[in-house]
Amino acid sequence: MPPEWHPHAACWMAWPGSSVVATTQRQPLLNELSRIAHAIALFEPLRVAVDPAHLDEARRALPDNVTLYPIPVDDHWMRDTGPTFLLDDALTPHALCWNFNGWGKPWMQCIEADAKVAQRVAHALAERTSMTPSLAPIVAEGGSLLVDGDGTLIVTETSILNENRNPGLTRGEADAVFRHWLGVTKVVWLPGSALDTITDGHVDGIASFVRPGVLLATGAEGSDEWAREMRENLKALLLARDARGRHFDIGLLRAPDFDALPVDLATDADFAPEYVNFYLPNGGVAMASFGDAKADAHARDIVQQAFPERRVVQLPLRAVARRGGGIHCCTQQQPAAVLT
User: Is residue 11 flagged as an active site residue?
Assistant: First the structure.
């Protein structure tokens, strides 16, 4: 699995059906997805899986240079429902499907079509390219995987080892799966989150690689349980070593001040203001702002310092964040078959 800064052949997104979001919330969500798509299309080709009933809607809202793939789609979390794209030693692309099961919550509205999105995307590509689809032997999601391209994978216990996904799976068994399929040599386990009732503590809300050995991580102050969980994850990162034996150099992206946010956001239990949940298109960074002007500017400065050669595009995120995710969750990179 190449790191996210490996050159991309394209970015994948999903244009949702109408069943997963209340009618009053749908248009604000679509507006944000459209802004994310337009931002990414500035940097790289964009491919979007679209519920066939919403093709005209998607065409009107998305950039002119987008390629639409009409397949059944419920939700817009392509990071989790879509395949993880791999390159083998011969640079042959593979699409690895993780058996999405609604984050272990079968009552989630989005499970029916989205359980098959990864395979449908993989087969659509296989008809046009040399893409090879494969089925992983465990349940996981793209947001639960963080690689550095240098042998290291970071995951969380609450997601991968959760009984709602992989009953009885041990760390050792999971390590063997990841080593075989992702080509990693070291798996770093973080405790994750018991408070995250949607993804059970995906790693892409906790940290993101800048380059091998260097991370940006979510920082949290205060005495509440969420802050305590974040500090436990940070502690695990500080104690860990990567595949090359290095300790991680970690920069913190602190959460916005909830007192500076609109009341409807600050009191929303699913609102996920995670600056680390950014996407790295070719030559760029697409990251969120949440409405705390000081924290938004500070986070942008840190991200720009971390990626001085990239153009940072910061997008207001409310509707997407209120559904428990961010820009990274809405996107999935398809790596180019090139050496780096």
Answer: no
